[in-house]
Write a structure and sequence with these properties.
This protein is an alpha/beta fold. The chain has 8 helices and 7 strands, in the order H-H-E-H-E-H-E-H-E-H-E-H-E-E-H. A 7-stranded mixed beta sheet has the order 3-2-1-4-5-7-6, with helices on both faces.
Length: about 210
């Protein structure tokens, strides 16, 4: 990927048109260099920075969170929310994170157990469900089934819908929701110097009827 291409996400959106985008690009570059040279990883979600700022303002201390895929975001939610559950396919990564958590639960599971883990809880149990990692289409479908009236779903890398069939189908499904409830955040992300898009869908259970 060339430097010029890094100024656009994979959907072709140009992301160097405002002062804040320049600030975000600088943050992404600095944290990328630190990650490569010192293994530094910011303990916060590696979603687009505009989506991170929105989520940081919206997050409540009494929220219950479920994550597909685990990492620095799990540590971030663990410090800010009442309850956090995450599923992870890497057994070694699960053990690594488990030793760093305060209250969050990280489960090692694969296949159908991974994709349907959110359904082990009653519908509407979670205030926020984050879809990242593998099997995103199946995980998104399970998240819709698990969502309550006020559940928020965070979907990372939605700009890959131009090249990834699963994400293309997720975008098609999301387009069926009212635009006022679908918030798209193209931008740079910390630790990897490239542009991306994160989509946040609000009140998913209500949107489904």
């Amino acid at each position: 990927m060339t430097i010029a291409n890094r100024l656009h996400d994979r959907a072709g959106q140009h992301l160097m048109s405002s002062p804040m985008q320049f600030v975000d690009a600088a943050s992404a570059l600095v944290t990328s260099v630190l990650r490569i040279t010192t293994s530094y990883h910011p303990r916060r979600p590696w979603i687009s920075l505009p989506a991170y700022r929105y989520l940081r303002a919206a997050l409540r201390s009494d929220w219950k969170v479920f994550e597909y895929g685990s990492g620095m975001s799990t540590l971030w939610y663990d410090r800010r929310c009442a309850e956090v559950h995450a599923v992870e396919e890497s057994e070694s990564w699960t053990r690594f994170l488990a030793g760093k958590m305060n209250r969050a639960h990280v489960y090692h599971c694969v296949g159908a157990a991974y994709m349907e883990a959110v359904l082990d809880f009653r519908p509407g149990y979670f205030d926020l469900i984050a879809v990242d990692g593998k099997h995103r289409l199946d995980c998104f479908r399970a998240s819709l089934r698990a969502a309550g009236p006020n559940t928020t779903i965070v979907i990372d890398d939605t700009d890959t819908g131009t090249t990834d069939a699963d994400m293309r189908e997720i975008n098609r499904m999301v387009q069926g929701f009212p635009k006022s409830r679908v918030l798209r955040f193209p931008g740079f992300a910390d630790s990897y110097f490239f542009a991306k898009e994160t989509t946040i869908v609000l009140a998913v259970g209500r949107l489904q009827g």
